[in-house]
Amino acid sequence: MSENTAHSPRLAKQLRLIEDRRADVADLLEQGGPHDEALLDLVANDLVGARLVIRAALLAPPPRAVFGEAREDLERLEREAAALLGVVLDVLGAGWRSGAGRGQRG
Alpha-carbon distance 14 to 2, whole Å? Predict the structure, then answer.
């Protein structure tokens, strides 16, 4: 990540969060079988929040506007968060389709 992007503590926090969630998603995919729905919800919520913070930074007007390499870094992070969120939603959707969703709790 460029120095320009890393200057913001809020954006640095989102980078760490996305890295942590990337590891969580990798662990989920390795496990197979039933997944912890609470963890999936947490991961999904964190990724949605990270995307919102990143999108706000990308849309910020001057003097907070982000340009050049820093903007490319943020766009890459936003795409990565979106891709990870897609994986989590697919796993959650598979749980619903298999009858393991919220409506099937006993």
Answer: 14
